[in-house]
Amino acid sequence: MSSNPDFDRWYAARKTRIVLSPTHRLETFGNTLVNYHLISELDDCPGKVRIREGRLEAHRPLVLTPDFSDITTEGLGDDAREYLRFLKENERNLRILRYGYHLKSDNYSEQVVTDSVAVVTERVKTAVRGSNDGFAAVLQGVDDPWDVALVELWLHEVRRSAGKNIRELDMNGQLFNED
């Protein structure tokens, strides 16, 4: 780690590689448990690889609707006020999905093995594929701060799942309902 935590976090995020994504997308109408396997070489210990396993709970996406009724337009021109009026008239058509997640420590484990990162990654990837766990992921990342990789996994899964979630919410009448 450097003396700059912001750089360390940025570096960890950029070094995260999702080797195997879950085959299933995040659930639309319930929480999803993603079983992660994070592989990282120990800092200053070439040939020593840490395997962290745990669960990432992605919460059910919530549909958020904007509320334009309390917005004031002090100091704004006519165009901005007119656009805001248009948004107020059409706010029922504006929806945003909000995803949350929770790191579960009740199923967390780690082990250190002696081998190359490539060999360990391939071994873990093969084992995860063989488990037929549709919500399992394999990642490579840095050893510290390692948990940044979990945020990257969560963002990746939100991006992958949002389209399906939106379609399912719309088909179920929960996206653009009149309530």
What descriptive keywords fit this protein?
179 residues; alpha+beta; 2 domains; five-stranded mixed sheet; two-stranded antiparallel ribbon; 4 helices; 35% helix; elongated
Would you write up a description of this structure?
The protein is of the alpha+beta class. The protein has two domains: 5-61 and 99-171, no CATH class; 66-94, no CATH class. The protein is built from four helices and seven strands; from the N terminus they run H-E-E-E-E-H-E-E-H-E-H. A hairpin with a 6-residue loop joins strand 2 (32-41) and strand 3 (48-58).
Provide a concise account of the structure shown.
With 179 residues, this protein is α+β, with helices and mostly antiparallel strands.
Strand order of the largest sheet: 1-7-2-3-6
Domains, number: 2
Shape, per Cα inertia axes: elongated
Helix content: 25-40%
> What is the terminal separation in angstroms?
51 Å
Note the total helix count: 4
Q: Give, in order, the helices and strands.
A: HEEEEHEEHEH
